[in-house]
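Researcher: Structure prediction, please.
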Amino acid sequence: MLGLEMVVLLGVALVACGAVARRYPIAPAILLVLVGVLVGFVPHLRQAHLPPEVVLLLFLPALLYWESLTTSLREIRKNLRVVVLSSTVLVLITAGAVAVTAHALGMQWGPAWVLGAALAPTDATAVGVLARDLPRRTVTVLRAESLVNDGTALVLYGLAVGVTVGEQDLTGWHVTWLLVLSYGGGVLAGGLVGLLSWQVRRRMEDPMLEGIAMLVTPFAAFLAADAVGASGVLAVVACGLFMSQVAPRITGAATRQLVAPFWSLSTTVLSSALFVLVGLSAHSAFLNLTSTSLAEALVDAVLVAAVVIGVRWVWIYTTPYVIRLVDRRPAQRALRVSARQRTVSAVAGFRGAVSLAAVLAVPRTLDSGAHFPDRDLIVVIASGVIVLTLLQAMLLPAVVRFARLPPDDSVAEEIQLAEVFSLETALAAIDTTAAELDIDEQVVRRVRRELDKMRLLVEAAGTVDHPVVVHDDQYTSLSLALLARRRDALIELRDTRRIDDIVLRLVQARFDNEEVRLSRARPPE
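Model: Predicted structure follows.
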């Protein structure tokens, strides 16, 4: 019954933390971590743990795929240099700095590098959840960095574990080959699976089957890369970015209405479960500590967290200025941001699921049969660092105010451009299209009036007192009110047994579609 109890607990925690976060300026992720810590005080529930391979092979592909599908490839291209440097060089520097710090605190070099590699990457899930309200460019750069840097970190992690256990020899050629295989093989595997998924889905007409094909895609990409020793993380990211470009051309409206809510709900539940797991694992790690005292472990965790956070701050405030000295092109000058604005990126270096899964996956014994050195301390320090970096989210609103980020109206402007352009295209094509379909002139006039009204509404967006906007608002209010009356009448027919429940659901679905359409058109109050 433990699994069922945890499912119920997770659902209650998700609803409660979301409700509290709406009332008070606290990120739900922080509250969920606290829930995990509190769950650890219940001996019966303390036994609930997910194997690290479940996090890496089940949770991570789904979360990364959805993050890749919903990010902006255009913004990634525009900020490619920042993303590449942050996801490679910064990861190496962070891992090295943590390793040196851990070694200075008494840890052997092998375990120290294992800890450094595990804590080097930022977490895509945490960044997506905690920084979603930032300007588009900032969020895109942070998400792209966290999507790619896992590949670099996991290669370092595998090397550090292999050398410590005694399975691998550390040479320059070996490291270079593993990095090339990780990146090249991962991107190639993700691209090939994306191509296959594209060809399969373009031939599908059943939304349910296409949704299942979409669900399988990230796991297939991860599996294909893992089979050749490449980075499954990068394969999922590459596949997701590819599908984000081709899917709009092959996916129908019915499929999008089916899969988008499913992915949004499921990834929210998965990410919430990971935050609870972080808190629970942190609690368990401190309880199971035997190699040193709790006070020393806490001090070590704080020191390593300070290094992880400090390295990111130093990177944010040094490398951009070095690049400015080298690259003075006008196109690059346009991308520059102020020192104040950089504080947001510096604070948003959250650690999470990948780091947790990595330290939990550290083997317990070496090839010689001896215990893995300081394994319990590695788990304790990593858990503490993850929690401390997530706590930075509490500072994020104040940092955003300090940064004085310029208002980002680019998304709203581009939405208006897209809607006006598409409506004008439809109006220009209405005569030829009607002739091809042999449509009556009366119908053509009706459709033209509706399209023209929609165009006027889009162009008048933001002007509340515009006559067209006032008229449409009143029209929407009346339509929604009458739709509610129709729904009540439908339920009355069912209650008096004049129609069946099956008929009720079919007609109610039509009413729901109409209500959603009208509600989206209605301006927020």
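Model: The chain has a mean pLDDT of 87.
Researcher: Thanks, that helps.
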